[in-house]
Structure formats: structure tokens, C-alpha cells
Amino acid sequence: MTATQPELTASPGNGGVDAAVAAARRVIAALLHAGDGTPAEMTEIAGRLNAVADHLEEHAPAVADRLVDMWAGEGVTRHDPVTGPENAIAPPLHLVGLADGGIEGKVTLGMPYQGPPGCVHGGISALLLDHTLGVANHWAGESGMTGTLTLRYHRTTPLFEELTVTARQDSVEGRKIFTSGTISAGGQVCVSAEGIFVNKHLARPR
Amino acid sequence: MTATQPELTASPGNGGVDAAVAAARRVIAALLHAGDGTPAEMTEIAGRLNAVADHLEEHAPAVADRLVDMWAGEGVTRHDPVTGPENAIAPPLHLVGLADGGIEGKVTLGMPYQGPPGCVHGGISALLLDHTLGVANHWAGESGMTGTLTLRYHRTTPLFEELTVTARQDSVEGRKIFTSGTISAGGQVCVSAEGIFVNKHLARPR
Question: RHA1-ro05818 N-terminal helical domain spans which residues (chains A, B) (predicted)?
Fold first, then answer.
């Protein structure tokens, strides 16, 4: 039944920059899992990563040009730190539209997203929810920028377990948009969020 | 006069895993700056990054052992996604204690932290503030886990400009801890946060 759910975020491809970014995510997690290592080993790893960065930086367009490029068109963005297949910081979270007007995504977070021992960082939950509420507004029709966001932490959010992130637009009053969402694990709500968004958009760079 | 400000977060070293993580941060940003590149180039970059991840994963301790290790001792953590020198997701933010009881850090965020065009993602501001409020509680003495966090977005927060992140513990009532903070750019508050923390700590893994 899920085959017809509209995709609200970019799907990572198997090649191109998306594949390199997926590999970079593995490096981020592996460095954290490795911990200290031996100094000689880590110096060698640093050298290999700096060589990759040197190569990419040499061939990268100017920042201003890249900003225009990444915001071109009207489709979903590919660079944000929550869903972006081109952003190695993003888990990434993949969101789909639900028939009831809400949206939903599943994600499992590893060690880079840790706050308390074995648990997701409260600020990472805030990041995921802020973004998901924003996407829920796009899906509902009226969208804008975050004005106020209130997060309630009901229980710890586990690492290494599948989380469900949901959001929906509750109401629109003039330029104010009221939106709410949750992060759940094993059917229990871990974090809930309520946002008031303002119907305002920054111009895309050109 | 700042030489005597106590450091509240781990300082990155010039070698070891910290140097490899600093290089990984360059890779994350460079991939985003590069955008699509050519398919052949990106396939080669993905191969080089996967080789680094393969090598690190082969030699990494078991996750349970690593969790015990990273939480050993009583000092500041080195792995969190905001200040951690071992976490490539962290900008990293470096926080110092102020004589008046508050804390402060300066940070400049690049493209991986983008939300609206050219601006910091609202959820990234939430991540930075949640963490900074927590560190302010440690600095003040009574600390705990986030119960409620309210963020107000006053104006957009710029990328590529130095931001000042501050926080202070305002009061303690029983087990409830009231803490607030801001992110400013050019002397103007962009985002403010108020948190209610609960004096409770998860046991460290052992």
C-alpha cells in the first residue's frame, strides 16, 4: 500500500555525488567508532581525507555560483542537513506524504547523533523535527520560516533503533502556520514538537 | 583578558583522530561545494572514501566497548555532534566559562549547516542551543536532561559569518532547572532559547 506514497524529499542515487556522500557518512561513523586508533594510522587517514578534500576544492565552483545552482528549480533541495543526499551530515531522513494530510519518515541514527549514553542528542531530535514540520507545511500547501519551535522530551530516544518521524499542519491563521510532529520508537512518543511558522520565504539566490 | 577563561569543551588536537576528523569535515563541505562533479570523478572519490571506511571499520572495537570507552572518566565528552573533536558532524563549537556565570562560544558555519538560502538551518540553531544550554548547566553546577526547549527565531542567522552562542542557568526550582541562551550575529540576536531541564542523568555505560 505504500507504493503510491508521494516522496517529499530527494532520493539518494547509487552513483555520482550521492555515492561519494554515502561513503563520507561511513567515514564519519567509522572515525567515531574507531576512537583514538594509533597516531601513525590516524595521520595516514588524515592524509588520505585531506587529499580527497584538496582534489574536490580545486575543482569546486565559487560559493556564490554553487548557491545559485543548488537553489535552481522548484523541486526539493538535495543539500539540507536532514534529508539531503548531497550532505553527509544528514542521516538522511526520507519523508513521504500520507493520505490523511500528514507526512512520515523512518530513520535509524548511529553514534554521530549521540547525546546521553546510547541515546539520540536532544538537539538532533530538534533538528529532525524542525525540518520535518517545514516539509509538512510544504505538503499541506502553506509554508514558511520557523517563528517559534517548542520541543517536549517525553523519554530518551534510542540510537540504533528505527525511529518514526511524523508531522502535520494543524491550522493556518493569517500569516501564522501551526504545525506539530513527533519522533517515536517502538510505538512510543519520545519527543514532540509544536511550531509556529510565518508565511515568508527568502528569495533564492540568482 | 580571555586567557583565563575556563574551557568547557574538549579542544581539538593537531594529530590523532582529531586531525582525521578535521579532514573529514573538509570532505563533507567540499562534497557539498562540488555538487554533481563528473560521474567518473565522483565514483573514484566514493571508492577512496569507502576504502578509508573499510579500513577503519576493520580495526574498530565493538560498539558496546566503544560506548564504555567514550564515556569513561568524568571529563568533557569528545564525541558529541556540537563540540566533539572526534565527531565530523560537529562544527565544532568551543565553549568557555564567563566570570558572570554564563558561557560563550564563537563559531562560523558553512554550507553543510544551511537551511534557507545562505542562512543557518533553524534546526541547526536548535541543536547548538540545546547543547550550549546543557553545558551552561554543567558550568553552573546543577545539570540534567532537556525536558522542554522553546526556540524563537528573531531574524535569519547568516552562514559564513562569526556567530556568538551564549547561555546561562537562570534558576533552579527543585529538580527543574531553567536555562536560556542566544545565537547572535553582528551584535544582533538571531535565535533565543529557553529550556527547562530535569536533574536526572543516564548511567554511563560500563
Answer: 8-65
